[in-house]
Amino acid sequence: MINGNNSEKEKAIDDEKLVARSKNGDKTAFEILVRRYSKYVYTTAFFMMRDCHEAEDISQEVFVKVYLAIGGFRGLSSFKTWLRKLTVNTCIDKIRLKSKTADKKVSLDSMIEDGNDILLYEFNQNVEKYFQDKETVKEILKIIVNLDESYRIPLILRDLQDYSYIEISEILKKPVGTIKTNIHRARKIIKDLLSEKQ
Amino acid sequence: MNELNKFLKFAKDIVVKPDSDIENKIINKIKNLSDEDKAVLDDGFMDFLKKYNSRLYLFKKKLKENCGLIVLFSLLGIGTGVFLLIEYKNYRKKIKNK
What we know:
The structure holds two protein chains of two kinds. By secondary structure, chain A is mostly helical. Chain A is 74% helix and 1% strand. Chain A folds into two domains: 1-103, Rna Polymerase Sigma Factor, Chain: A, CATH 1.10.1740.10; 107-198, Arc Repressor Mutant, subunit A (Orthogonal Bundle). In chain A, helix 6 (127-145) crosses helix 9 and helix 8 (165-172) packs across helix 9 (176-197). Chain A is globular. Chain B has helices spanning 2-11, 22-31, 43-52, 55-65, 67-97; one strand at residues 15-16. Chain B has a domain at 66-98. Chain B is built from five helices and one strand, in the order H-E-H-H-H-H. Chains A and B meet through helix 2, helix 3, helix 4, strand 1 and helix 6 of A and helix 1, strand 1, helix 2, helix 3 and helix 4 of B. Strand 1 (118-119) of chain A pairs antiparallel with strand 1 of chain B.
């Protein structure tokens, strides 16, 4: 996701080496991992939390956890998968804590447009089509960040993070049927709002 | 819906640019860790670490997620086994008759 040009395989090998070096206390290797994945972690946290400051705090917390525990990482899954799961878990913990303590409403109108640039990789299409698609993806993301939490989180986990329905149901402690229904409804909302705008 | 799936696939490849220099903030944080920061290694995290270091847990998870596929392959395997057994019995009968 970060280095669009490298193949996943090449990157995975590289990650393995960097993780091994980090385990041996090589801080430079860990810094490379931070530079490679910090935006990826931030993006995941941003869409889940809908707040850039919280996304920043979570990114820091995730990398502190990784740094302190990298010696115990056995590498049974890829580093990126491990990092992704850790980020999502950290976000879910924060969301649970937040909903217990305060029902804070966040104004997200035009958050993406004003506060953050969204970088997109080229889609291997002609330029005109690329810009059309880019705009549509932006519209979809704007709709997603404004969705209700019960729709937003399952949809992000399923469609942007590739979690299975079973995994989502375990993470969110909700039945698989509810998760499927909420994702279906979320997609329908996006579809309806998109066709309204077009 | 297919069109939406296409755009959701594209959306996976986006990266939000943080307001501040997040990379250096994280690196500085790691360079200046205090004992308080070690509190992030709470029970929840240790449980996560344990799970993702367990082959058994990961295997069970894969099994759970691919339940349908496993049932399909098992049925196919049983079917193939039964077919081969019948064929073998027929073959032996033919040899005996000869």
